[in-house]
Amino acid sequence: MSKNRYSVSAYLHKELEEKGAIHMALIDPANVTPEEAYDIAKMAQKAGTSAIMVGGSIGVDEHLVDDIVLSIKRGGIDLPIILFPGNPSALSRYADAVWFLSVLNSLNPYFIVGGQMQAAPLVKKYKLEPLSLAYLILGEGGAVGYVSQTRPIPFEKPEIAAAYSLAAEYMGFEFIYLEGGSGGRPVPPEIIKAVKSVTTRPIIVGGGIRTPELTARAVNAGASIIVTGNIVEENENVERALREIIQALRKAARRRKAQYEPALREP
Ligand code: 1GP
After folding, report:
1. Fewer CB within 10 Å: C terminus or N terminus of the chain?
2. Stated pTM of the model
3. Whose CA is closest to 41, among 19, 17, 73?
4. In angstroms, what is the span from residue 262 Cα to ligand 1's centroid?
5. CATH homologous superfamily of domain 8-265?
């Protein structure tokens, strides 16, 4: 995908409209070489993913991100590359877009708006498309919860996640990310359902989703975008693992659409 030829946001909304739910493969520059990143992106593309996300919480800087993004681009991968930065120095001018995220449940204003203020001029200079994202950390929170000094939303408190999500919508965020933490316990369906009941914004769910069953469970509950990270780095057969996950996602999305559309047609 050539940079800035069209809007990544428009592409994502079109994908969501057509498919009901989509998958994104997350690559952490701290964990893979540029060559490995290219291989992962190629297999993810073959398996039917809709975008490649690049980012991580620890040990990531601009050079590492540049190398990963360029390796994927030079290999001819025709998917948008969306940065998922843990700090303002993890931006690459070669990517297409950036999750311009605010960790709403951080206790430190730096992670809510300080880092974003530092990064905004770079996002403009690098001509990255900002995708406004309310980032909520739940459960144990994982490394990202620790690093961004959050008070993670307890899994047994769906009403808090819903209230944050409604606030996010009222504040104008375009997407809402429910993060269980990389490699952690996946966000429970009760939380996703509670958030879905109060917002029309696309709900992104990530953290600990490793199986088709967990994928289907999240989509059935209302997730629009499923992010998997660890599975693409650890699995020997990335393409097969992702294909199974994406098949489960599509099936659940079709079932959800079929249930929803007759209801819309009723007088
Ligand atoms: C982490 O939500 C992502 O930010 C993905 O988590 O690595 O557990 O798939 P996993």
Report:
1. C
2. 0.95
3. 73
4. 34
5. FMN-linked oxidoreductases (3.20.20.390)
